[in-house]
């Protein structure tokens, strides 16, 4: 069955449709060729999605934006265009029922509404979001009414069921949009999760799913160029009520918070989809996919099934909110980003027209490197979803993105090729490929390209492993256990060891001297990764449920082992090998543990530096800081709901001029991004663990049970943390994974500022987060940076004490203000261990705010001539108008701010008045100019 636009030739009377008028024939002829509102927006939205993916670290709500650029932007636009096309092709109604000008207005309304939503959400302009949602919903309702009008005026014919699929799909989008708009109301976590599931399923399985199933009944065999299954129409009619009932059950269960009901609805939907898919199997078996278009659509349908199955599991476990990244990867990259290019690869050349040879010429371009692209996209996506090292996931995902983005230049080339072929035929030249009408073209899915795609993925994996060999389990050195004069027994001791929490079970094994030892280590800890180093051998970092063998060929004496992840050994995660039998000859390895105990890799937490005080970390002539942290604060956003993604990453950062450390960070910076709002604001934080170990997050700015939102999540997973700011102050947030001291000291801290009511504006607002740095060794470049020293943390022996992550950075990069400016300095003591007494040398504070209370001054106050703060019509806070403050004392995790006005030009040091800490780097310069 051919679903190209209807021929200008009048249909025969047997078709039962009215003969088209000359106006109809002109409109249909005009439909062939370039139509900007039909052809360009989908290309634009896909291009924007690629751009956002490339620069996502600097784009607010990047994950949300990428998902909606593909689903709401490109896919929804294409649904508008091609469902209208198929309705006309199947029903053969007069074009006057829904003129091209009407379609253009509808597409314009959709385009404007979609753009408003895309701008409104990242900029938190909710009036713009609501306006855009109303425009999009209005366009969809209008689209549905026009489809119904065509159905009513059409004569009886086959496959009217397809249009009914479209009509029910058009009902779903406004409902799903309403669920989505409700997510911005700042509801409780429970209601947020319920609406999120309803929103996702209504739009994905309703608006998109029903449209796709209705279309592919006829389009799939057409793309394969084979007759359809004789049962296709009947199967479509039988499946529709099943799918609709399943959607109702799913939404009802989600909104009622009944997981079992929601799961049953999803299972029923999957059953309806399987029943419908029988109509696709016969054509595919008769003529398997041989081109990019059909193969891409087939892969998309496979990922749709995977996505539904995954959703069922996540709903059953109550983990949908925490696994949005996984679902987005499956539904957007696996399903939507392959369905749309696959369909367009067939439809665009067909819509441009020009005859079989022209259509074939355009479709041939779409087959460029088809197998290579498909292998990279699908196998690469599987790798990204697997528990691979973080940098492997990064390199593979970049390759997948390139393979997806390749469709855009291919699409443009195909359009240009079709236009040129049409012009050539119009000039009387012979068709470009005269054999295309009679010969079946060779398959575009070649083995050579498949091998090339696999090779490209292997290169990406190799690069990722090379960038982080330790995370890939390649960091262990050669065995340092000397083999004493012990006769090998030829026997093997095998032991299974479980890693969970901060213990190995068992943590001791007794082995006869001379035996071979095989340890089967399994990680039973769902929250984080673990490994084991023993006798110079080391396992890779194991995710939950993973296991690996560690082998000591000949046990020649007692051996001590441990988990090398920072802090785990200090928390008690050690393993001992004891021996029985005659001891080895003295001097030849009788104490194996003494021989290898100092050979643990330095970047896993062992302290190889020794007495750090002998190393001149801070000098009188320091190197320039490469990238100082800007301490200037921005005012609180006007939005009352703040959506932020914090990604746990382990990256090398400068901690003092010319000194580097492997830091554990939120969004690649230590301290993490500063959040700001007012009392009553809602914060929705998505934590994504892109590291190599378990991480978590704890916001002191919210009050809620820590069990779920503060739990540790393993690499590759995410969670959503929602809280309402009910009290003002500067609040710490940090990773709360044990050992917490190591995670905080490594950099996983940040500040949330909730402005006190009536807080006046000042000329300058600065933020200083004080924290400590504990070095395993001194590295003068990023490549040699090592992990935090857990031993020094336990000894409370910091190498550096820093403001905003880098010691003395504001000595060189001074903080500049003018005389007479009012300066407010917020201070947070992030610790984990040291107190602070913040002081401005040469300055006096007329306002002091500490831990939610005004110690001096207050809102509405103004500095009098003596420097005191005057409020309430001139009554001095201290009673005399002469009081002031000299230091803001804070314990770890406490914060506040001071205000002062500096009347003279000069250089005013900012210090912790625990002077040893000022000398360790808690020091800066406030430069005042006239």
UniProtKB/TrEMBL annotation:
<keyword id="KW-0560">Oxidoreductase</keyword>
<feature type="transmembrane region" description="Helical">
    <location>
        <begin position="165"/>
        <end position="184"/>
    </location>
</feature>
<keyword id="KW-0479">Metal-binding</keyword>
<dbReference type="InterPro" id="IPR001287">
    <property type="entry name" value="NO2-reductase_Cu"/>
</dbReference>
<feature type="transmembrane region" description="Helical">
    <location>
        <begin position="261"/>
        <end position="281"/>
    </location>
</feature>
<feature type="domain" description="Plastocyanin-like">
    <location>
        <begin position="655"/>
        <end position="757"/>
    </location>
</feature>
<keyword id="KW-1133">Transmembrane helix</keyword>
<protein>
    <recommendedName>
        <fullName>Copper-containing nitrite reductase</fullName>
        <ecNumber>1.7.2.1</ecNumber>
    </recommendedName>
</protein>
<feature type="transmembrane region" description="Helical">
    <location>
        <begin position="369"/>
        <end position="388"/>
    </location>
</feature>
<feature type="transmembrane region" description="Helical">
    <location>
        <begin position="235"/>
        <end position="255"/>
    </location>
</feature>
<dbReference type="InterPro" id="IPR045087">
    <property type="entry name" value="Cu-oxidase_fam"/>
</dbReference>
<feature type="transmembrane region" description="Helical">
    <location>
        <begin position="327"/>
        <end position="348"/>
    </location>
</feature>
<dbReference type="InterPro" id="IPR011707">
    <property type="entry name" value="Cu-oxidase-like_N"/>
</dbReference>
<keyword id="KW-0677">Repeat</keyword>
<feature type="transmembrane region" description="Helical">
    <location>
        <begin position="394"/>
        <end position="416"/>
    </location>
</feature>
<feature type="region of interest" description="Disordered">
    <location>
        <begin position="580"/>
        <end position="617"/>
    </location>
</feature>
<feature type="compositionally biased region" description="Pro residues">
    <location>
        <begin position="1"/>
        <end position="13"/>
    </location>
</feature>
<dbReference type="InterPro" id="IPR008972">
    <property type="entry name" value="Cupredoxin"/>
</dbReference>
<feature type="transmembrane region" description="Helical">
    <location>
        <begin position="65"/>
        <end position="83"/>
    </location>
</feature>
<feature type="transmembrane region" description="Helical">
    <location>
        <begin position="293"/>
        <end position="315"/>
    </location>
</feature>
<feature type="compositionally biased region" description="Basic and acidic residues">
    <location>
        <begin position="593"/>
        <end position="610"/>
    </location>
</feature>
<feature type="transmembrane region" description="Helical">
    <location>
        <begin position="127"/>
        <end position="145"/>
    </location>
</feature>
<feature type="region of interest" description="Disordered">
    <location>
        <begin position="1"/>
        <end position="29"/>
    </location>
</feature>
<keyword id="KW-0186">Copper</keyword>
<dbReference type="Pfam" id="PF07732">
    <property type="entry name" value="Cu-oxidase_3"/>
</dbReference>
<keyword id="KW-0472">Membrane</keyword>
<comment type="subunit">
    <text>Homotrimer.</text>
</comment>
<feature type="transmembrane region" description="Helical">
    <location>
        <begin position="204"/>
        <end position="223"/>
    </location>
</feature>
<keyword id="KW-0812">Transmembrane</keyword>
<feature type="transmembrane region" description="Helical">
    <location>
        <begin position="42"/>
        <end position="59"/>
    </location>
</feature>
<comment type="similarity">
    <text>Belongs to the multicopper oxidase family.</text>
</comment>
């Amino acid at each position: 069955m051919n679903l190209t636009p209807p021929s200008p030739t009048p249909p025969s009377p047997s078709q039962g449709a009215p003969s088209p008028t000359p106006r109809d024939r002109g409109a249909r002829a005009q439909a062939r060729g370039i139509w900007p509102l039909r052809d360009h927006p989908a290309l634009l939205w896909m291009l924007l999605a690629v751009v956002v993916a490339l620069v996502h670290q600097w784009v607010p709500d990047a994950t949300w934006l990428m998902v909606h650029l593909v689903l709401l932007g490109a896919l929804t636009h294409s649904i508008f265009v091609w469902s209208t096309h198929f309705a006309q092709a199947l029903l053969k109604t007069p074009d006057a029922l829904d003129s091209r000008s009407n379609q253009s207005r509808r597409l314009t309304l959709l385009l404007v509404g979609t753009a408003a939503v895309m701008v409104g959400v990242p900029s938190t302009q909710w009036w713009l979001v609501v306006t855009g949602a109303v425009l999009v919903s209005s366009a969809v309702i209008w689209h549905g009414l026009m489809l119904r009008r065509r159905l009513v005026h059409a004569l009886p014919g086959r496959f009217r069921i397809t249009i009914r699929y479209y009509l029910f799909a058009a009902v779903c989008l406004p409902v799903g949009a309403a669920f989505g708009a409700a997510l911005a109301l700042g509801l409780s976590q429970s209601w947020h999760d319920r609406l999120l599931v309803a929103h996702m399923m209504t739009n994905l399985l309703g608006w998109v799913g029903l449209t796709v199933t209705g279309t592919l009944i006829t389009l799939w065999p057409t793309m394969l160029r084979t007759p359809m299954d004789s049962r296709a129409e009947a199967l479509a009619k039988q499946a529709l009520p099943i799918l609709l009932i399943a959607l109702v059950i799913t939404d009802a269960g989600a909104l009622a918070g009944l997981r079992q009901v929601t799961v049953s609805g999803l299972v029923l939907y999957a059953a309806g989809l399987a029943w419908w898919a029988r109509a696709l199997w016969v054509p595919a078996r008769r003529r398997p996919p041989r081109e990019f278009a059909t193969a891409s659509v087939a892969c998309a349908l496979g990922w749709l099934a995977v996505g539904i199955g995954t959703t069922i599991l996540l709903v059953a476990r109550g983990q949908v909110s925490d696994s949005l990244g996984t679902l987005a990867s499956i539904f957007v990259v696996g399903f939507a980003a392959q369905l749309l290019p696959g369909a367009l690869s067939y439809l665009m050349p067909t819509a441009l027209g020009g005859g079989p040879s022209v259509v074939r010429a355009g479709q041939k371009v779409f087959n460029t490197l088809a197998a290579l692209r498909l292998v990279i996209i699908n196998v690469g996506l599987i790798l990204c979803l697997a528990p691979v090292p973080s940098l492997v996931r990064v390199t593979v995902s970049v390759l997948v993105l390139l393979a997806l983005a390749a469709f855009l230049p291919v699409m443009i080339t195909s359009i240009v090729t079709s236009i040129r072929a049409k012009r050539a035929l119009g000039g009387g030249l012979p068709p470009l490929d005269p054999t295309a009408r009679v010969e079946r073209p060779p398959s575009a899915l070649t083995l050579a390209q498949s091998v090339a795609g696999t090779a490209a993925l292997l290169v990406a994996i190799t690069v990722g492993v090379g960038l982080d060999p330790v995370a890939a389990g390649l960091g262990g050195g050669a065995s340092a256990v000397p083999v004493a004069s012990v006769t090998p027994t030829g026997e093997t001791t095998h032991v299974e060891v479980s890693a969970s929490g901060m213990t190995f079970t068992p943590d001791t094994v007794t082995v006869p001297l001379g035996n071979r030892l095989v340890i089967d280590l399994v990680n039973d800890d769902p929250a984080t990764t673990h490994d084991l180093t023993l006798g110079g051998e080391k396992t890779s970092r194991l995710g939950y449920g993973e296991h690996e063998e560690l082998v000591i060929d000949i046990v020649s004496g007692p051996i001590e082992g441990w988990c090398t992840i920072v802090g785990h050994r200090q928390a008690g995660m050690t393993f001992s090998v004891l021996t029985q039998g005659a001891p080895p000859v003295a001097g030849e390895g009788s104490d194996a543990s003494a021989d290898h105990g100092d050979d643990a890799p330095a970047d896993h937490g062992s302290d190889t530096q020794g007495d750090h005080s002998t190393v001149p970390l801070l000098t009188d002539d320091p190197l320039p800081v490469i990238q100082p942290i800007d301490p200037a604060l921005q005012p609180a956003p006007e939005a009352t709901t703040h959506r932020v993604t914090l990604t746990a990453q382990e990256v090398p950062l400068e901690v003092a001029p010319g000194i580097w450390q492997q830091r554990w960070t939120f969004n690649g910076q230590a301290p993490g991004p500063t959040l700001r709002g007012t009392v009553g604001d809602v914060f929705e934080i998505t934590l994504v663990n892109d590291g190599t170990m378990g991480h978590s997050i704890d916001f002191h700015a919210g009050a809620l049970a820590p069990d779920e939102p503060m739990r540790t999540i393993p690499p590759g997973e995410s969670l959503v943390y929602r809280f309402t700011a009910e009290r003002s102050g500067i609040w710490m947030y940090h990773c709360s994974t044990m050992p917490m001291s190591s995670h905080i000291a490594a950099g996983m801290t940040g500040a949330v500022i909730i402005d006190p009511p009536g807080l006046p504006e000042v000329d300058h607002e600065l933020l200083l987060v004080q924290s400590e740095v504990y070095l395993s060794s001194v590295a003068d470049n990023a490549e040699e940076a090592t992990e935090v020293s857990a031993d020094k943390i336990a000894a409370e022996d910091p190498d550096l004490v820093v403001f905003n992550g880098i010691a003395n950075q504001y000595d060189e990069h001074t903080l500049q203000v003018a005389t007479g400016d009012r300066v407010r300095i917020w201070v947070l003591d992030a610790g984990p261990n040291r107190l602070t007494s913040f002081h401005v040398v040469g300055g006096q504070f007329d306002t002091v705010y500490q831990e939610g209370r005004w110690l001096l001054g207050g809102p509405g106050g103004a500095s009098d001539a003596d420097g005191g703060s005057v409020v309430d019509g001139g009554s001095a806070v201290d009673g005399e108008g002469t009081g002031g403050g000299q230091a803001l004392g804070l314990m770890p995790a406490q914060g506040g701010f001071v205000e002062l006005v500096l009347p003279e030009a000069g250089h005013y040091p900012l210090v912790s008045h625990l002077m040893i800490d000022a000398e360790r780097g808690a020091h800066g310069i406030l430069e005042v100019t006239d």
